[in-house]
Automatic annotation (TrEMBL):
Highest taxon of source: Bacteria
InterPro entries according to UniProt: PLD-like_dom, PLipase_D/transphosphatidylase
Domain PLD phosphodiesterase: start-end pairs: 178-205
Key words of the record: Membrane, Transmembrane, Transmembrane helix
Membrane-spanning ranges: 100-121, 127-144
The keyword Membrane appears for this protein: yes
Name listed for the protein in its UniProt record: Phosphatidylserine/phosphatidylglycerophosphate/ cardiolipin synthase-like enzyme
Source species of the chain: Chryseobacterium camelliae
A Pfam family that the UniProt record links to this protein: PLDc_2
Coiled coil stretches, renumbered: none
Length: 256
């Protein structure tokens, strides 16, 4: 893993607002944007979603250190789409049980309404035995209600809004022997402009932090960078977070 290229022609920037030109180039993309950044901010995820909706092809490589995964504004939810499937046989059984539960409730109430006047107004205590039937109906209905609550009629799968990989950070308990942390910050616009440096795709990195970055349109250099990013996107041996796992962590999954 790795790429070396010598004598590239590039611009160098050091200081605050190192991402101003980068954001401008990303917003002006005509075909595609490819990003490698271990950290992301919600506002910049929105930028990628906006470009995707405009028809720009987006590819993203990040880590499970995503800034807004555990926060209140989880824009990662917009990158992972939940799709719900219905088990039709289970749904039919669920509906039948609900109907039966309603019928039993109606019968219990009706029977109680009949028995109470017979016992108290007609002074016929023997009709009190009828409440044994009410209790039995109650127990049966209570069992059915439990079956309704536990009946699983929905199953869930997840898909990505656009292609992205989330690599597992070392120390996250994945069980992987891989210790490599994807710490690179690489940005490609239309496979013609490349940025590299210390600049994360975060609000602070783009605007506030004292960062370093280079920008190059050198065709040979850009070609080498494109090859490396494409390799990470298509054929990496590093441990990844599975989209189905992440989806199940992000969304609730009611069973019925």
């Amino acid at each position: 893993m790795g790429t070396f290229y010598n004598n590239a022609v590039c611009d160098i920037y050091i200081g605050r607002s190192a991402g101003a030109k980068l954001i401008q180039d990303i917003r002006n993309a005509k075909k595609n944007v490819k990003i490698v950044s271990p950290y992301l901010s919600p506002s910049l995820i929105k930028e990628l979603i906006f470009l995707h909706n405009k028809g720009i092809e987006i590819s993203l490589i990040t880590t499970d250190e995503i800034e807004d995964f555990y926060g209140n504004e989880k824009n990662i939810n917009k990158l992972i789409i939940q799709e719900q499937q219905v088990d039709e046989d289970a749904k039919q059984s669920y509906d039948s049980l609900k109907n039966l539960s309603g019928i039993l409730l109606f019968v219990m109430i009706g029977l109680a309404i009949v028995l109470i006047p017979l016992i108290f107004f007609l002074q016929q205590p023997k009709f009190g035995f009828g409440f044994i039937a009410v209790v039995l109906l109650f127990l049966i209905r209570n069992y059915i209600v439990g079956e309704i609550r536990n009946k699983k009629i929905y199953h869930y799968t997840y898909r990505q809004l656009f292609p992205f990989k989330v690599f597992v950070s070392p120390g996250q308990g994945s069980g992987s022997i891989n210790k490599t942390f994807i710490h690179s910050k690489i940005y490609l616009i239309d496979d013609e402009i490349a940025y590299m440096g210390s600049l994360n795709f975060t609000a602070k990195g783009v605007k506030e932090n004292y960062e370093t970055r280079i920008r190059t349109t050198d065709p040979n250099a850009v070609h080498k960078i494109v090859e490396e990013v494409n390799r990470l996107l298509s054929d990496s041996e590093l441990a990844e977070r599975d989209v189905q796992y992440w989806g199940s962590q992000l969304y609730s999954e009611p069973i019925n």
